[in-house]
Structure formats: structure tokens, C-alpha cells
Amino acid sequence: MIDRADVDAAGAFTDKGYTLTDTPGVHSIYKRHTLLAFEEMKKADAIFFATYYNHAFSRADVMFLTQLGRLTQYFSYNKIFFLVNAADLAEDTEELESVIRYVKRELESFGLEDPPVYPVSSLQAGGGSRPVSGMDNFMEAFEQFSYEQLQGIVLEEGRGEIRQAVRTLEDMMETAALDASRQQEKKQQRLNALKEAEHQLQAYSFALEVDMMHREMEELLFYVKQRVFYRYYDLFKDYFTPYAFQKERSFAEQIKRQTNSLVQEVFLEFDKELQATGYRMEQYMKERSQRIAETFSEQIPESMLSAFHWELPQFDSFSSNEQPPLDRMTFSFFSSYTSYSAFFMDQQIKPFKDELEEELRPPADELLEKEWGQMRDHFTGQWERWWADFAESWKHNIESSRRIEEGIEITYTIEDVEQVKNLLQSRFE
User: Fold this and answer.
1) Cβ–Cβ under 8 Å, residues 191 and 405
2) SS3 state of residue 136
3) At residue 165, does pLDDT exceed 80?
4) Among residues 178, 273, 330, 350, which is most buried (max CB within 10 A)?
5) pLDDT, greater one: 216 or 418
6) Which residues does 88 contact at the CB level (< 8 Å), separation at least 6?
7) What are the angstrom distances between the C-alpha of 223 and each of 63, 169, 309?
8) What is the pLDDT of residues 111-155, one digit of tens each?
9) Sheet holding 80-85, edge to edge
10) How far is CA 189 from CA 85, 176, 195, 428, in A?
11) Residue 85: beta bridge partners?
């Protein structure tokens, strides 16, 4: 099975160092493709979603964009660009602006806040009419985003490292200016702080963190069921409309077909909600791990913090292996609904909708119970491994800092340290 294929191509975009990844999954019937697409989007610095000027969003588009809307709140910044291709088909500027407003409203209805939408024409861009193709406007916006957002993150991380180094150097200058007894006193203060940090590490009960993580997961799964059955009413209206039935054909066969399609989509909604829940759990553990590290950092003398470097962890995504119990769903109440006119004109559709929902709830509960067990095991193992690695690393850093502190002697002058500090600050500015 081919996981990826790399293609080297020279062009204005790639020559600037950008890498484009074309993902499968948006319209694929294969679950693995959809999972792969979202994994790539999570890792990407920016996402381009292209649609066509005079094509409405398909059902597959709607499902994909709704899922994307569920996840965007967990991105650290807004990284999605929407392109409306074939903008040259617009009769005039007014029509084009009307279409762009419509696309924005649709995207916002999927949970995508303030979506940036750019009309482009690949025909004009490739045919010598690039100035009017809209491509330059899009690229200008993207390059501004690349510089301000992406490079800004890297620069700010670098500035943070420099600020920390400057504080360390200032502490060294302060220490060097003290007499021997005061230097020894400060040294003992740092050693005491390291001893307290070691006690704090030993006393920390990570079992409470695991319990908190489980409660977070239970709450998220509780709302999964609520959201899916809220969506059930909208999905029902899509499948059970008079236009979806033909009077001259068997009503019994048609109602079974529409019901099967609806049920499959309802459980597909569960699958997508569970995928989003897994992503939310990843974000929860990242945020908690950062807070835990910050809590332990507060005990470390500031002049030593540079030795306690740690990186934000990456957790494996959750993928459901459970199959919905569709084969055990018989829908015996079907026999009560045999007439097109009675169903739609005599409002039998209302009790049918309620009966179908009641039939769906028990297998949904069964599915969520199994998913809860799988998700708990999946994330608990990773959470406990992260803590074991973090605690071991933190303990090692404490021991190393203690050995350095116990053996250190002041062999530098204030002038030496100040020269290095001024050099760093000049680079920072």
C-alpha cells in the first residue's frame, strides 16, 4: 500500500521553500483516507481548500467542512484559505462579490469563523492573464500570513530563549558582584530550591491527572450523543422529503432504502464526532502537560531554567475500530407505514421520526460505551508514558544542576558577562 509519493516540481511557489501536500479523503468512501487527510491538516502550517465557482457544496463537502469546523477552535491560529476557482465565469464584479458573500455565509454555517475566501481563475493564471486571475492577491495574502504568523512564531520562540539567557547573565553579574559569603548564601538558596523541586516531583500524584483526564473524556463523549441526535433532525429532513420518493414505486422499499441511508449517515456522524473528540483530548493533554511543566518550573531558580528545557509533546491520534451494530437493527415498526399519501399528507412522518430515533438510541449507547473503553485505554497509556518520561527528565535535570552548582566557582568577571549580555540584547532588538 502506498502511503505517500513525493514529486519535485520547480515553480514560483515551491522555489520559495513551500511544500504542497495533496490529501485524499475529502470525498473518499474509505475511512482511512479521511483520517489521513485530517492528520495531514493537523500537521500543516496552512490549509488550502478549493471549490468551484458555480458548484454548490456537495454533501461530502458539507460533511468535511463541518468536521473541519469542529476542529478549527483547537488550531493555535487560523490557517485555512478558501479558494473559489473559475472566477472568470462571473458576468461582472457584482456577481462575483455576491458569490463570495454566499460562500462565506455557507462556511460560517459550518462553524468556520470569519473564513478568508479568495476568488481565483486557474485558466487566466495559466493562460497569460495572471494580473486579473486573482492569484496574485491570494499569494500576497498568503505570503503576509507566512511572514507574520509562521515566521513570527519562530522569531518569538527565539526571543524567548534570548530573554531567558539575558536573565541568566544578569543573575551571574549580580552574583559576581557579591562578596564570598553572600555568593555562598545565594548558592545555598539555589541548592535548597533544587531540593524543594525534587520533593515536589516525588510528592506529585499523577493519578489525579489521569482521573481528571478520564472525567474530561466522559464529558466530551456525553456531548457527542447530544450533538449527533440534534443533527438527526436535520438529516431526517434531507432523506424524508416528498421529492426523495416516487409515487409509482413501492413505498415500503423506498422507506427502507431511505432509512438505511439515514442510519448510515447518523453513525458516520458519530464516527466524525469521535474523531473530533480524540483531537480535543490530544489538545487537552498538551495544555495540561504545559501547565504541569510550568508548575514545576516555578520552583526552579530563574538562572537555572535554561537547563530544564522541554518540548510540547505529540500524542497519537485516536481512530475508532468499532463498527456500528447496523446488522442487528430490524425496525419492526416499518409495517405501520405503507402509504405515500398517509406518510406525507396525513403526517405519519412525525411518529415515524420519533420511533426511528428511539430505535437508534440503544445501539448508539452501545457504540459509545465501547468507544469510551477504547479511547480511555488509548489516551491513558500515552498520558502515563508522558509523565514517566517527563518525571525522569526533570529528575535528571535537577541532579545535573545540583552537581554543577556544588562544583561551580566564580571564574568570570562582570565585564565578561556584560559583554555577552549586550551582544544578545543587540541581536534581540
Assistant:
1) yes
2) helix
3) no
4) 273
5) 216
6) 121, 123, 124, 133
7) 19, 51, 37
8) 898 899 999 998 888 777 777 788 889 989 998 888 777 776 666
9) 47-52, 80-85, 117-119
10) 65, 16, 10, 30
11) 52
> CB–CB of 133/120 below 8 Å?
yes
Give the long-range contacts of residues 171-178, CB within 8 A, separation 24 or more.
171/301, 171/302, 171/303, 172/303, 172/412, 172/417, 173/414, 173/417, 173/418, 173/421, 175/410, 176/410, 176/412, 176/413, 176/414, 176/417, 177/414
228-272 pLDDT tens trace: 999 999 899 989 999 889 888 899 889 989 998 999 889 988 988
Rounded to the nearest 5°, which phi and psi values hold at 47?
-125, 130
User: Which residue type sits at 333?
Assistant: F
Q: Are 193 and 299 in contact (CB under 8 A)?
A: yes
Q: How many CA atoms lie within 13 A of 241 on its CB side?
A: 8
* Complete domains list, the chain, with CATH: 44-177 (3.40.50), 181-423 (no CATH)
What is the chain's length?
A: 429
Lowest-confidence pick of 309-313, 396-400, 425-429: 425-429
